[in-house]
Task: inverse folding
């Protein structure tokens, strides 16, 4: 079969790799029908995730069909159409028993495309299948379902739930990329008074409006002033960081109100300054997190009922063997207007939620 293989920083290729095989009784083999690319994959290609060994097939999000199961698998069988979660859960360790699957110490956690071969291939082996793949509702299309493998659970759990969004809140989402847009959409489920989106790109601010933001602010033009004006100088109840650079994290701590929450979602590759000289007196709660995917069944039901704007995040589609082209489009989002790219679905024209810039 073929897969997209990491060979070291700046080096990768769509090439022949060995077919996956059942190694443990809890494994399944899934034929990949749809896959997407994550910003974390770009971090790997830059060399920012040293745990990924050269020779690893990338990817941690997929939809496909089960073609083989290990002897202990009980929840799916060959022929089932499933979502492959970005998080694998042993189900037995302390963290899994507490629902913190992302911190699994029994051989799971984020392992696909990280510690073992991932989903950007024609077939993938998924360990601990009973807790790590999810049967899909019949009416949910591949390009909708694949966004529930990572993007929507991450935005919902690490952003909205960790931030404790409540009715009547002012919510600020810093970063209007795919995760930020999903955070806007899922924050709206809780009835906030307003959601404010902050980004540098005009096209992404326009997308944020279409996903439900009530106000937008250019990050280079004093968003603190807008938040102050909207809240009577109190600040935001919840601020969600969805970029992962020091400047955006520090902006979040400046616009949050006393007693508010900063929910960091972004993957940080450099240190950020924590200004405790200002924050210590403000009763601010700061949370971080890797997604646990405990919300995936709920989100699947909501997507099947049409309550999540999943398809609108898909700006480009490609055949599976166009992996390198898809990476190029996704990595150059400022020029291509890419939000999420999906590979393997039937090729058709997708209308982006914002104009290409």
Result:
């Amino acid at each position: 079969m073929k897969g997209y293989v990491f060979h070291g920083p700046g080096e990768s290729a769509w090439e022949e790799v060995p077919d996956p095989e059942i190694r443990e009784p809890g494994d399944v083999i899934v034929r990949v029908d749809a896959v997407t690319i994550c910003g974390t994959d770009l971090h790997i290609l830059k060399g920012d995730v040293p745990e990924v060994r050269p020779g690893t097939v990338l990817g941690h999000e997929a939809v496909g069909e089960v073609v083989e199961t290990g002897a202990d698998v009980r929840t799916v069988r060959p022929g089932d159409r499933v979502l492959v979660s970005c998080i694998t859960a042993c189900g037995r360790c302390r963290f899994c028993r507490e629902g913190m699957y992302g911190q699994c110490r029994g051989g799971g956690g984020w392992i696909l495309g990280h510690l073992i071969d991932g989903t950007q291939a024609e077939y993938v082996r998924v360990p601990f299948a009973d807790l790590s793949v999810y049967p899909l509702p019949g009416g949910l299309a591949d390009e909708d379902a694949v966004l529930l493998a990572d993007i929507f659970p991450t935005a919902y759990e690490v952003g909205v739930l960790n931030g404790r969004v409540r009715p009547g809140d002012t919510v600020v989402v810093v970063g209007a990329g795919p995760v930020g847009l999903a955070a806007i959409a899922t924050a709206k489920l809780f009835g906030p008074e307003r959601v404010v989106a902050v980004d540098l790109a005009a096209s992404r601010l326009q997308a944020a409006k279409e996903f439900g933001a009530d106000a937008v602010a250019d990050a280079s033009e004093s968003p603190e002033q807008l938040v102050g004006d909207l809240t009577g100088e109190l600040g935001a109840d919840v601020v969600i960081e969805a970029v992962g650079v020091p400047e955006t994290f520090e902006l979040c701590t400046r616009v949050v109100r006393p007693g508010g929450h900063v929910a960091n979602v972004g993957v940080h590759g450099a240190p950020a300054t924590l200004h405790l000289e200002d924050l210590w007196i403000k009763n601010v709660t700061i949370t971080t997190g890797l997604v646990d995917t405990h919300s995936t069944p709920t989100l699947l039901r909501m997507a099947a009922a049409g309550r999540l704007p999943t398809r609108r995040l898909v700006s480009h589609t490609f055949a599976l063997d166009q992996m390198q082209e898809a990476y190029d489009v996704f990595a150059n989002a400022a020029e291509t207007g890419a939000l999420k790219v999906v590979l393997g679905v039937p090729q058709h024209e997708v209308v982006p939620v914002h104009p290409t810039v």
